[in-house]
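User: Quick sanity check before I run a bigger batch. Here is a single chain. Can you write out its predicted 3D structure?
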Amino acid sequence: MKINLQLLDIVDRDGNIRKLKQNGLSYREIGELIEKNITEGNLDEDSELISLTPKGKGFLETNRHLLKEIDKSKWIELDYKNKFEKIDPNDVFLPSRKGFSFQKELL
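Assistant: Done. Predicted structure follows.
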């Protein structure tokens, strides 16, 4: 259902299907999802333009709250490549300049 809502939101905002691709859908699956929504009456195919029907707009507006990511842990990806083991609070950690990818060389 969330993928379906994302498609309707993309059509409503004249957006890019990149988000659907990031969720693992192939172009074929996206095309099938569009066809399914046209058949169900959520989308209208007008020559080369795809738009929301009143039924699709109503469905999107009632369920738009489901599109927002609530789990804050998914907002930012964890950086495992720069993770290091915990050290004793009394130890001092002095990283080398080349030790971490986020540190830039000083000129």
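The chain is about 35% helix and 5% strand.

User: Great, the batch can go ahead then.
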